[in-house]
């Protein structure tokens, strides 16, 4: 007790079980002193009153308090209806699970927070980039950024004056139906262009940080944050330029987040294929020393684990990404485990650590908004969360010295198309679509019988002629002709045809990889010598390149499922 006679209560002890919902709630009100009145004697009424006084303080009440009527003989008559709880006393739901912090909200365990956690959260106004709504109907892309900022950490982790760059970045794509998610790591040493970036200043004005075009050796992706005052909105714009995917929100954490979150769950299980002794010749490195096999890391060791790279197979950032993915996947499983979900002390520590570690955009910049987001993402099962890495290759401009990487277009573009078209990297029964649509199902005409006039609405010069040449020479569709430029540019490629040309439409769709949504049948039959109309849209990528999204990821793409623990190293 303190000097004024008040009890000192451990915050974890303020979580009480609500018998109506079966969940824990955070009790912030002071305890109500027990009644000093002597209860009347009598049978079941006496036992009932004893039970009332033995309840936790939040649930304790006397007959006078809640309208109970004491009947003759000590019986307690039926109560009057309880008054509804005020909105500001309702707990908000925070769910746990991991990619940095967004998977913490996406994995499915319930964490009840109160409004006082709002003050823990830092926000950044990123202007017109991103989505102002915390939740919405459609696919969602959230950028999780681990910054290497040393602000407030002294020289323990290197340059104390570092502005903080995008050291670890994961694009978390959630499908429209919320059945699956893909967490794609973006290597910090990737050479890519950075667009112009409007950033909000403290005085409310906007400053445009000049972009940097991609050269042979730079810029690197990690300087999309911090350099020249670039904020997380700049990193979001860079990811959109790189992948073609619109980023809706960002969540950013620093070194301390790894330490506090791992400690909040009493450690994260990891497994190594070989021992780690991560101290470079010049004395740098994470200074982690672990034997091969399973371990549980938390706090300082957890941070060392996700920063380790010198003692890995190639000593590269790409190897380190695999460690980070294992760590985050394991954190998902740990946070969803019953040991965490049913432990009020762990729940409080985890919620407190998570909100203190978090910087987000204003669209999700409150506990209420994060709760709404969490409830939207809770449907994603951990077994349908897949970690992967943006496909890259060694930078050919560097010769034998490989300090940077560039995008491997042949493998990366199919992955980007899968994400754009909401194709899962895991088998999700609910999301499986029929291989054929009614418009694509049926007999197909011979290639030589396909009559089509091709118009260019793609914005790419010569696209119509290139397509006609490919159809005639490579596919045998000798009756295809060039219609020139379309009246206006088209966002998508479309094929318009008459009902009696359906077999020709199916044949052309098969050749070009057209989806059912690209086919637009008319209502009146056409003359036997009439042409179908194919208008190339902005999705046209070149003659002979399929317009349909891949139905599965390239065979050599790196992936790991969040619900499976594997040894790495």
Q: Helices, strands, pairings?
A:
Layout: E1 15-18, E2 23-26, H1 43-54, H2 63-66, E3 92-96, H3 102-106, E4 109-113, E5 122-124, E6 140-147, E7 166-174, E8 181-186, E9 197-200, E10 206-209, H4 232-243, E11 249-253, H5 255-264, E12 268-272, E13 276-277, E14 289-290, E15 293-297, H6 300-307, H7 317-336, H8 338-341, H9 344-356, E16 359-361, H10 367-377, E17 385-389, E18 392-394, E19 405-407, H11 409-420, E20 452-456, H12 463-474, E21 480-485, E22 494-497, H13 502-512, E23 519-521, E24 532-536, E25 559-561
Parallel strand pairs: 5-16, 6-11, 8-17, 20-21, 20-24, 22-23
Antiparallel strand pairs: 1-2, 3-4, 6-7, 7-8, 9-10, 11-16, 12-15, 13-14, 17-25, 18-19, 22-24
What keyword list fits this structure?
25 strands; 24% helix; 8-stranded mixed β-sheet; 13 helices; 569 residues; alpha/beta
Would you mind describing this structure in some detail?
Helix 5 crosses helix 6. The relative contact order is 0.12. The chain is elongated and about 75 Å long. It is of the alpha/beta class and 569 residues long. The N terminus is likely disordered. The strands form 8 sheets. It has an 8-stranded mixed β-sheet, sandwiched between helices. It has a 5-stranded mixed β-sheet with strand order 21-20-24-22-23, covered by helices on one side. It contains 13 helices and 25 strands.
């Amino acid at each position: 007790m303190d000097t004024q006679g008040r009890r000192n209560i451990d915050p974890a002890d303020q979580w009480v079980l609500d018998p109506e919902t079966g969940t824990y709630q955070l009790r912030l009100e002071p305890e109500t002193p027990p009644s000093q009145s002597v209860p009347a004697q009598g049978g079941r009424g006496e036992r009932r009153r004893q039970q009332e006084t033995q309840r936790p303080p939040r649930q304790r009440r006397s007959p006078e308090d809640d309208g109970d009527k004491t009947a003759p003989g000590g019986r307690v008559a039926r109560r009057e209806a309880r008054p509804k709880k005020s909105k500001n006393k309702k707990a908000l739901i925070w769910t746990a699970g991991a990619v940095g912090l967004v998977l913490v909200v996406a994995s499915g365990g319930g964490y009840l927070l109160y409004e006082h956690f709002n003050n823990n959260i830092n926000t950044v106004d990123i202007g017109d980039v991103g989505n102002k709504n915390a939740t919405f109907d459609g696919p969602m892309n959230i950028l999780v950024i681990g910054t290497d900022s040393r602000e407030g950490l002294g020289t323990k982790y290197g340059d104390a004056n570092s502005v903080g760059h995008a050291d670890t970045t994961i694009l978390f794509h959630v499908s429209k139906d919320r059945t699956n998610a893909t967490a794609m790591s973006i290597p910090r040493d990737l050479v890519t262009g950075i667009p112009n970036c409007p950033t909000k200043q403290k005085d409310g004005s906007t400053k445009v940080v000049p972009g940097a075009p991609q050269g042979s050796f730079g810029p690197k992706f990690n300087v999309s944050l911090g350099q020249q005052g670039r904020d997380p909105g700049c990193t979001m714009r860079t990811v959109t330029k790189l992948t073609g995917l619109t980023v809706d929100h960002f969540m950013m954490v620093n070194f301390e987040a790894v330490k506090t979150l791992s400690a909040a769950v009493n450690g994260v299980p990891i497994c190594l294929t070989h021992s780690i002794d991560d101290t470079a010749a010049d004395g740098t490195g994470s200074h982690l020393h672990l034997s091969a096999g399973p371990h549980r890391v938390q706090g300082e060791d957890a941070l060392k684990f996700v920063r380790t790279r010198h003692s890995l197979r190639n000593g590269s950032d790409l190897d380190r990404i695999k460690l980070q993915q294992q760590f985050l996947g394991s954190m998902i499983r740990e946070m969803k485990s019953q040991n965490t979900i049913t432990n009020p002390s762990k729940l409080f520590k985890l919620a407190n650590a998570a909100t203190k570690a978090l910087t987000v955009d204003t669209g999700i910049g409150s506990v209420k908004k994060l709760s709404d987001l969490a409830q939207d993402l809770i449907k994603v099962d951990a077994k349908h969360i897949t970690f992967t890495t943006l496909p890259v290759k060694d930078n050919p401009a560097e010769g034998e010295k490989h300090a940077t990487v560039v995008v491997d277009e042949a493998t990366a573009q199919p992955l980007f198309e899968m994400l754009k078209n909401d194709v899962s990297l895991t088998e999700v029964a609910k999301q499986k679509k029929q291989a054929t649509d009614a418009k694509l199902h049926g007999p197909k005409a011979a290639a030589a019988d396909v009559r089509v006039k091709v118009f260019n609405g793609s914005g790419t010069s010569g696209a119509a002629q290139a397509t006609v040449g490919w159809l005639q020479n490579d596919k045998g569709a000798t009756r295809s002709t060039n219609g020139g430029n379309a009246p206006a540019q088209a966002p998508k490629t479309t094929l318009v045809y008459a009902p009696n040309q359906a077999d020709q439409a199916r044949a052309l769709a098969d050749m070009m990889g057209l989806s059912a949504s690209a086919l637009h049948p008319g209502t009146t039959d056409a003359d036997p010598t009439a042409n179908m109309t194919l208008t190339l849209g902005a999705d046209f990528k070149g003659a002979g390149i399929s317009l349909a999204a891949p139905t599965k990821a390239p065979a050599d793409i790196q992936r790991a499922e969040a619900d499976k623990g594997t040894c790495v190293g």
